[in-house]
Write a structure and sequence with these properties.
The chain is globular and about 55 Å long. Helix 3 packs across helix 4. The chain is built from 11 helices and 5 strands. The longest helix has 15 residues. About 45% of the residues lie in helices and about 10% in strands. Strand 3, helix 10 and strand 4 form a beta-alpha-beta unit. It is mainly α.
Length: about 200
């Protein structure tokens, strides 16, 4: 049977965020987000030796599995940090390379009260670190002064935010690029942002 280790490297190239320089309109060539994904998953499964009809059938289940709220977990410090940020008067928003239904997933996980808005590449049509996705979110949020990106991916979150003229805090991942705004966890981040703005 297939193992996660077999398919994981192939899936990495299928997601639109593996091709951040290409807008969805060019990448997907008129296909919907999940149609594009299902085709890529089926293609990957065929490369692993499954027949075409079985590959398509398995791929058709991917969306339902991906969107199961119980399949996702939060870090222990996520909710306290978001609550503190909100208490400090910050407008929490999500900007993520993610599926079109990210807002529904956030709501199903009972997190929507902590966020003012959810912006996802799956509906915007651009992936971080493209400047376009950041500018779209900023414009939709009313171009707030002092906006700060908090993210765990240096290339997508930090470089992308800085290209759009934002401050950015790198969290969770090792600070191998010596980014001046870094925290190993979310706990200290609201105070860091408070000192910045």
């Amino acid at each position: 049977g297939l193992r996660y280790e077999d398919i994981s490297p192939l899936l990495g190239e299928i997601y639109p965020w593996a091709h951040p320089a290409v807008p969805h309109s060019l990448l997907m060539k008129g296909m919907g987000w999940w149609e594009y994904m299902n085709e890529g998953i089926a293609r990957a499964l065929r490369r692993l030796g499954l027949e075409a009809s079985r590959s398509r059938e398995i791929a058709s289940h991917f969306r339902g599995e991906y969107l199961r709220p119980e399949a996702w977990r939060l870090y222990d410090d996520t909710v306290p940090a978001l609550e503190e940020a909100k208490d400090r008067g910050f407008r929490n928003m999500i900007l993520s390379n993610h599926v079109p239904e990210l807002g529904d997933l956030v709501e199903a996980m009972r997190l929507s009260g902590l966020f003012e808005a959810v912006f996802t590449s799956g509906t915007i049509g651009h992936e971080k670190p493209s400047k376009e996705i950041f500018l779209h979110a900023l414009s939709a949020a009313g171009t707030p002064a002092g906006a700060v990106m908090v993210g765990d991916n240096y290339r997508s979150d930090i470089i992308g935010a800085m290209k759009a003229g934002l401050h950015a805090v790198l969290v969770r991942t090792p600070n191998t690029f010596n980014h001046p705004l870094h925290s190993p966890s979310l706990g200290p981040v609201p105070a860091m942002i408070n000192d910045m703005i």
